[in-house]
Amino acid sequence: MRIRLASSRLEFWASVALAMVLLGAGLGWRQPLNVDEERFLGVALEMLQNGSWFIPHRAGEIYADKPPLFMWAVALCVQLTHLPKVALYLPALLAGAVSTGCLYDLGRRLWGRRVGVISALLFLTTYQTYSILQTGQIDGFLALWTMLGIYGLCRHLLLGPAWGWFYIGCAAMGLGVISKGVGFLPALMLIPYAYAVRKGWHGVVPMPGKANAWWLGLLVALAAIAIWLLPLIVIVSQGSADSLAYAQEILLKQTAGRYANAWDHREPFWYFFVQVIPKYWLPIIFMLPWLVPAWRKQLLKHDGRVLVLLGWVVLVLVFFSLSTGKRKIYVFPAVPALVLAVAPLVPWMLRRWFSRRPWGRTVFVTLTAVWLCAWFVRGFVEPRQEGINPHETMMRDVAQLTGNAQVVLVGWREGHWLFAQQPVVHFGFMDKSPLEHSVVWLRSHPQAYALVPANDMARCYDPAKARSVGDTSRAEWYLVGADADNGRCQSPPPSKVYAFEWTQQRVGGVASR
Which of 168, 350, 369, 475 is least enclosed by beta carbons within 10 angstroms? Predict the structure, then answer.
């Protein structure tokens, strides 16, 4: 017994270590290159600078798109490492390590040690695991809370009763909500569980007469949400109209409003099934011809474990498919449960595929090792190929060309603000007349400059007096001074002006304490 327990612990930590190695490959070489990574790192650094932890800001303007927990995590990692370009990726790396360990443990407890190892390896060989957990986006951090929610509920519903684990899962869901609104998704697991219990399926644990204990889970989740929500309510009750507008935006428009009527990333209902799953759920997708009949047999035998896991995967897919806004990253929360449903069938599939081909198992193991090694190598090769963020180079050149004078940002992207090395001014990220407002600003601040995209620049500025500073964010950018004003743009002063400057020590071109 002790030998078996020691072996399980060794396998657990080996799985976690493998996840750290594979997902951490290239850490320190990676650059925040897409708008999400630039935005979240910038918001976290601005939190450290202005101390506004419960109402995030982007270049001085309130940022109301996402709750702040992920930015808190990045800010904490910045404080610990003093390396912003490393800190951005640590939350997802932690999520990957925890998820791999949890999947090993659940697989072992539900079906045995061999299935635990397969669960961990299958998760690490799934394409979407790398596409999410090697980035500095919220969805990588959300995976931490989603996995802990799944783990806590599975320990309780399939292996329990385990009320302590159930409450841990509920707390994780609450923290998931203040990372991204969909953090509650593991709770949907209760739907197939309730059906299985009612129909008397095996593999699930009935717990009648425990209504108060179940409702306590909701209170635990709400308590976790209150870590952010209660201070926000206090701030809003004592604060300005801007803080009230922030609360309305983040609690209503960016959650229910965005789900029901998205204004960006609009895709048809079948988007995930046609354009995402066939690519990002490799290699599992190749197994479906064998998995589907096997799952059908397990369900006909009333295996509640399979019903709960697959039922939850289906509910997650339906939930996101019903929303008008869709991105490929949205369905990643379903991957861990799918892995747990697939893993116990892998030994059966291997026997079926290779029973008459002894060399087949060797080929399979070799291909798996090559696949993992390829992802490890890619972690180092890809950052080298991508190079330095072009916004960083551009803003360094802008600072040199202007002598660190104030720069007005027009039609800007997060990288312009994140890598700014001088004071910047803008009129709101969603300002509808930024070009006209920049002209008004330069007329009253002739020592300042404006950074404007080439598109439509000639409407207000003389192109002959503009200087090209690079091509980023699908636009060519020009630096203009007050002397480039062609006099054709007349506009009232902007209703809002945001002035911002990084004041802390810079690390690799990015501000940090």
Answer: 369
Tokens 């060989």 label which residue? 125
Q: What is the DSSP string of 467-487?
A: EEEEEETTEEEEEEEGGGB-S
Ramachandran region, residue 487 (left: φ > 0; alpha: ψ -120 to 50; beta: rest): left
Which residues, other chains included, contact 440 with Cβ-Cβ below 8 Å and sequence gap of 6+? Answer: 491, 492, 493, 494
At 509 the pLDDT is 52
3-state secondary structure of 387: coil
Q: How is residue 436 written in tokens?
A: 């006209």
Torsion of CA 507, 510, 511, 513, to 10 degrees: -40
Q: What percent of the chain has pLDDT over 90?
A: 79
Once rounded to an integer, what is the mean pLDDT over residues 194-211? 95
Using CA of residue 470, residue 480, residue 502, residue 39, what is the dihedral sign?
Answer: negative
pLDDT of the residue at 138: 95
Q: How far apart are CA 331 and CA 333, in angstroms?
A: 5
Residue 261 in this model has a pLDDT that exceeds 80? no
Pairing of strands 475-481, 449-453: antiparallel
Is residue 139 within 8 A of residue 332, CB to CB? The reply is yes
Crossing angle of helices 69-81 and 90-111, rounded to 10°: 110
**pLDDT one-digit tens code per residue, 117-129:** 999 999 999 999 9
Q: If we measure between CA atoms, which residue out of 157, 261, 174, 136 comes closest to residue 210?
A: 157
Of 68, 66, 54, 64, give the one whose Cα is nearest residue 234: 54
Residue 513 is predicted with a pLDDT of 47
Q: What is the 3-state secondary structure (H, E, C) of 54-111?
A: CCCEECCEECCCCCCHHHHHHHHHHHHHCCHHHHCCHHHHHHHHHHHHHHHHHHHHHH
Q: Which is it for strands 407-409 and 424-426: parallel, antiparallel or unpaired?
A: parallel
Residue 502 structure tokens = 């990084």
| 463-466, long-range: CB < 8 A, 24+ apart | none
- Terminal-to-terminal C-alpha distance of the chain: 51
pLDDT number for residue 8: 87
What tokens were used for 71? Answer: 């930015």
CA angle centred on 489, ends 483 and 493, rounded to 5°: 95
Convert the pLDDT of each residue in 419-438 to its tens digit.
Answer: 999 999 999 998 999 999 99
Largest CA distance in the chain: 85
